[in-house]
Amino acid sequence: MTEKARTIARNRRARHDYHIMETIEMGMVLLGSEIKSIRSGKVSLVGAYAQFDDNLELWVHGVHIAEYPEARDNHEPDRCRKLLAHGKELKKIRRKVEEKGVTLIALDVHLSEGGRAKIQIGLCKGKTKYDKRSDIADRDSKRRMDVAMKHALREQ
Asked: Are 59 and 81 spatial neighbours (Cβ–Cβ below 8 Å)?
């Protein structure tokens, strides 16, 4: 993602529930009312994932883009949307997804420099309960160390 890209929606749960091995940025095929709704921030990625169909096309499921109130012909909010990537990239991703336990999860939706909506997809493996607990413990210990360092610097 570039510096000038503006994040519209983020799937926070994905980083908690999955180990993200690799991220890929892709375009989405959208209708006019959908891009207007994305620009106004009406997107939800809860439970969103990507899946290949029989023709080696990648589709994202579970992305909720709210209807745009001023549109004449509105879109269906929960429809599947086609993702845009080069054929070589799609073949490489498909090979990785065919491994056991690897899935494609939608991580965030953002607007690129040209105003185009992009979605960041992550190649993920599910975390176990132990992994989640260790992540929480690491985060808490880091937070405690930061607070201790801050107090130590104040005392000097």
From this structure: yes
> Given a cut of 90, is residue 156 above it in pLDDT?
no
Residues 6+ apart with CB under 8 A from 22: 96, 122, 123
- Is the pTM higher than 0.70? The answer reads yes
Mean pLDDT of the chain: 87
Q: Decide if 48 contacts 122 (C-beta within 8 A).
A: no
6-126: CATH class: mainly beta
Give the residue from 125, 122, 106, 77 showing the smallest Cα distance to 9: 106
Which residue ranges make up each domain of the chain?
A: 6-126
For residue 72, name the pLDDT band (cuts at 50, 70, 90). confident
Task: Give the Cα separation of 58 and 68 in Å (integer).
Answer: 25
8 A C-beta contact, residue 137 and residue 24 = no
